[in-house]
Amino acid sequence: MADFVKVNVSNSHNDAVAFEVKLAKDLTIDALKSKLEILTGGSAGTMKVEVFKGDKCLGSLDNNDAQLGYYVNCDGLRLHVIDTFASFCFDAPVEKFELSKDQYDQRSDSVRNYLKQNRLGKYNEEEMQQIEEKKRQQAEELQRQAELCVLDKRCEVTVQGNPRRRGTIKYNGPLEGKNGIFIGIQYDEPLGKNNGSVNGKVYFVCPPNYGGFVSPLSVTVGDFPPEDFNLDEEL
């Protein structure tokens, strides 16, 4: 089992900004907050740290003596730092403090300098190359799988959190407003989400709840005859 995890870090000052860091699983939450203080500008003594998977909050890192691995045991999660000082209000106007790009580059206590010194995120050339290579391989695999999804072929669909479903391929291509390639399936049973239409646009036609669109990676093409369901069978 790996001794480190790669996580993204965001903060309540700017939810849109996140960067990737590599952290030891045996790092205590107290020590983690000290690192996050440097990275985010928050206060280790008052900050609250939450762990997210996508947009879903999995919980708060509220035990300072616990190790990071207790809360985060896989790559790709996000640590969100909530700085309690951010909610304070002041009536008196405060002069805005700004640094030029050159002044910021010369500071030794900046987030950028910390990332450079520790070869983290985009400053880790080897890691960035590995990420790009992984993206390229994923794109090639997606394209290969999409080419196998020929119209009117039988298939089985496997999506995490859903039962395996059999059906017939009815569409292969992009969906309006979404990125990537999608495979349109007419399922043998009403286990889908639509009738072949998405947001009013028709991609294929099938009865309501018999249609669905999934990633090519979720589709296995093969000899999958419709399963027989005997409704008269005594249970």
UniProtKB/TrEMBL annotation:
Domain of life from the UniProt record: Eukaryota
Gene3D superfamilies the UniProt entry points to: CAP Gly-rich-like domain, Phosphatidylinositol 3-kinase Catalytic Subunit, Chain A, domain 1
Name the record gives this protein: Tubulin-folding cofactor B
InterPro entries: CAP-Gly_dom_sf, CAP-Gly_domain, TBCB_Ubl, Ubiquitin-like_dom, Ubiquitin-like_domsf
Entry keywords, A to Z: Chaperone, Cytoplasm
Cellular component, GO annotation: cell cortex; cytosol; microtubule plus-end; nucleus
Family, similarity comment: Belongs to the TBCB family.
GO BP term, example: cytoplasmic microtubule organization
Record's subcellular location: Cytoplasm
Species, as recorded: Drosophila madeirensis
Principal cellular location given in the protein's record: cytoplasm
Domain CAP-Gly, first and last residues per copy: 173-215
Molecular function (Gene Ontology), one example: microtubule plus-end binding
Record lineage: Eukaryota, Metazoa, Ecdysozoa, Arthropoda, Hexapoda
Stored Pfam families: CAP_GLY (PF01302), Ubiquitin_2 (PF14560)
